[in-house]
Amino acid sequence: MKLLILDAGHCLSLALAREANRRGDTELVITEALALSPGQLEEISPDALIIPPLAGPSEANPATVTAHAETVESCMAYCRHAGIALVWCVSDQLYEDGAELPIDEHVIPRPRDESLRRLILTGDRIRESLPEHVIVRLGPLFALEGSDAWLPGLIDRLLAGQRVSAAEDIVFCPISADAAAMALIGMLQQLNCGATGWGAYHLAGTEPVSAYTFASAVRMQLDTRLEGLGRKVALGELKALNHHHDQPLRRVLNCQRVLEVFGVHQKPWRLELGRMLDTWCHAYQAQEERP
Fold it and tell me: Which domain of life does the UniProt lineage start with (predicted)?
C-alpha cells in the first residue's frame, strides 16, 4: 500500500513515517507543503492521500482556517478525478460546545464560530463528492517532535522555570501521534484490502482529562525522572485557568465505531506519555553527558 502525506513537519506525518518504517507493507511519500497539484497526485499514484489536522482551529487566524479548508477541497477534487481515497484528520475542537455524554461518531459538529463552520462545510463537500473518504476527528495530539506536538513546548517551559497556564475546565481525551498513526495505517490497510468502512471516525486516548491535569501529569513524571537521573531542576509552576464558570466543557469522543469496524482500541494516554518521557530522558541524559 502506498500513501501520500502532506505537511512533512507535522507531528502526525512524522509518526506515520516511523510506523511505516516499522512495517513492510506500507510505502510513504511525504511532501513538505500542505498543497498538491493534480499532476503530482497522478504521478505518485498513491492508494490514499492523508492530510494532517490543522492545529487549534478555534484559536487559529480565520485566514489560516480558510486556506486550510480550500486546500483540502482542492485535494478532494484531485482525488475524485484520479480515483484516490482521501483521509482528512480534523481537531475535536470542531465540537465547540462539547457534550455531557461522549460524542458519537455519526454526530456532525455544529459550531457557532464562522471559521469552524468553514471546516464543517469542507467535510460536507467531501461526504457529498467523494465516496472513498475517511474523516478522522482526533483528540488533542501529543508527541516529542513536529508541529502541533504539544509536549516539546510544555517541557521547554517547565525546564526554563516558566509558569505554565492550562485550562482546568475543558475536558478531552489526548492521543499520542504514534497511536493515531498506528490506527490510521491499520484502517487503511483494511480498506485497501476491500473492507467497506468509509466515513467518519473518532480517535482519542482513554481517560478524559483537563489540559491542566495533563500538564500536571507531565510535570510530575518529568520531575520524577529527572530526580532519578540525579538532576535537580526547579521546574516551572502550573496555573489553572477557568473559562467556563458554570460547568466544564467536555469534548470526549466516543470511539466505538472505529473499534467495531476496524478493531482499533484507544490507547491510554498516560502510558503513551510515560513512554515518550522515557525517550526524552534518555536523550536528555545523553546530551548532558556529551563532552
Answer: Bacteria
Burial class (CB in 10 A: 0-12, 13-18, 19+), 91: buried
Query: How many Cβ atoms are within 10 Å of 141's Cβ, its own excluded?
Result: 30
Q: Residue holding cell 484559536?
A: 59
Max Cα-Cα span within the chain: 60
Residues 180, 158, 220, 211, CA torsion sign:
negative
Report pTM.
0.94
> Residue 241: which H helix or E strand, with range?
strand 238-241
CA distance 149 to 141: 6
Reported as a single tens digit per residue, the pLDDT across 102-139 is 999 999 999 999 999 999 999 999 999 999 999 999 99
**What is the C-alpha separation between 128 and 126, in angstroms, rounded?**
5
